[in-house]
Amino acid sequence: MHGSGSISAQTVAGLPAGMALVTSPRLPLFGIGSGDVERLLSGQVADWRALGSAVSLPVEVYALSSATPTANGSAVADYEALVAEFGTHPGAVALVPVDQVDYRANVLAVDGFDPLRSGDGVIRVGGRRYRSLGAMSTTRWSRSVTTRILSQSWPPS
């Protein structure tokens, strides 16, 4: 039952099934509206401030050459190359398979739907599934990871 509800929510959110909209962790934005997805990926949005970001950063669309159904944007060979671009391009965004997403990317929720937290109590990171202990623990974990990324002390040495 949860599985079909998750697919339905993802379709309503305007994301292809099994895909997540990811950005640099340095972008201070955690969600957009479903009407913004196509505009964002097609290059119609020039600045993240237009979508609610607290800072002005140019939108830079990237696509994984192997798995992304996006015609616009700069192509990168794989997820590792995309993450490397995040280091120098804080306004970067890409549509990637959910099973490739890890802590080095910020997942944008679309109309409140986050494909890593699909409502079934499971968080998906890097192809692994983790049972959530509740909204507060997930929020604390996310804040901890975000704080470490922003302070550039992640991963711990």
Describe the model:
- With 157 residues, the chain is an alpha/beta fold.
- 29% of the residues lie in helices and 21% in strands.
- The protein has four helices and nine strands, in the order H-E-E-H-E-E-H-E-E-E-E-E-H.
- The chain has helices at residues 2-12, 34-41, 79-88, 135-150, and strands spanning 19-23, 31-32, 60-64, 74-76, 92-97, 106-107, 109-110, 122-125, 128-131.
- The strands form three sheets. A five-stranded mixed beta sheet has the order 4-3-5-1-6.
- A hairpin with a 2-residue loop joins strand 8 and strand 9.
- Residues 1-8 and 131-154 have low confidence and may be disordered.
Order of helices and strands: HEEHEEHEEEEEH
- Would you tell me the overall average pLDDT? 75
* End-to-end Cα distance: 42 Å
Percent helix: 25-40%
Number of strands: 9
Q: Widest sheet: strand order?
A: 4-3-5-1-6
Beta-strand percent range: 15-25%
Low-pLDDT segments, ≥5 res? 1-8, 131-154
Structural class: alpha/beta
How would a crystallographer describe the biggest sheet?
5 strands, mixed
The helix count comes to: 4
From the spread of the alpha carbons, the general shape counts as: globular
Query: Radius of gyration from the CA trace?
Result: 15 Å
